[in-house]
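pls design
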């Protein structure tokens, strides 16, 4: 029998919580490997846990809250919604990270029930919207780390900003199972505004903050 837990007013099954936890850990490990430059440099990751911690708190949290946001909005529209991890894709994320690039698709929130195109659009855009908000949350963390010259804090903020902006932009691409396809079907102006804004902010953040993944 599957157990159910209520967290912040929302119901999560034990399987769903397990899938969310495994996805968070797997993506944290995958991005940490990617940050050090892949398999040949993995000893640098093994020698110090700080980069893994940063990865879990940035990439891991970005994916986790992205998916939870889809669930929250779906439940708001009276849907039965649960996250299901794709273990083969989580394995692929780690394998691609080992060879120097990363492809991550941890799973998806599955929901059932009648929805209007607008409601579908709201559920789809919730994930990227949360990533944009998280990028704003990480900005003062980066600034504080830079002012105080605390490298770990600055790296946490920098990774958090860039990763969340990138995830928002990537997921808004109107292709296949990505959120952008559903959003553009609902509202082209909303899609254009959020997608273009995410792309511009991603480019600006990379050019301004750099892609130096050194903690």
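designed seq:
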């Amino acid at each position: 029998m599957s157990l159910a837990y209520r967290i912040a007013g929302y119901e999560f099954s034990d399987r769903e919580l397990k899938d969310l936890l495994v996805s968070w850990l797997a993506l944290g490990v995958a991005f940490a490997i990617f940050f050090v430059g892949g398999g040949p440099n993995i000893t640098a990751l093994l020698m110090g846990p700080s980069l893994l911690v940063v990865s879990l708190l940035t990439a891991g949290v970005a994916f986790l809250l992205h998916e939870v946001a889809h669930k929250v909005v779906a439940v708001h529209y009276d849907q039965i919604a649960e996250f299901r991890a794709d273990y083969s894709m989580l394995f692929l994320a780690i394998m691609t990270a080992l060879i120097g690039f990363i492809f991550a698709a941890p799973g998806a929130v599955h929901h059932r029930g009648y929805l209007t195109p607008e409601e579908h659009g709201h559920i789809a855009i919730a994930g990227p919207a949360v990533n944009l908000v998280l990028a704003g949350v990480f900005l003062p963390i980066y600034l504080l780390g830079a002012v105080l010259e605390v490298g770990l804090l600055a790296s946490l903020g920098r990774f958090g900003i860039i990763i969340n902006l990138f995830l928002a932009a990537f997921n808004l691409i109107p292709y296949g199972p990505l959120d952008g396809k559903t959003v553009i079907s609902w509202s082209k102006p909303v899609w254009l505004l959020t997608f273009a804004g995410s792309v511009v902010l991603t480019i600006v953040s990379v050019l301004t903050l750099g892609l130096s993944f050194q903690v």
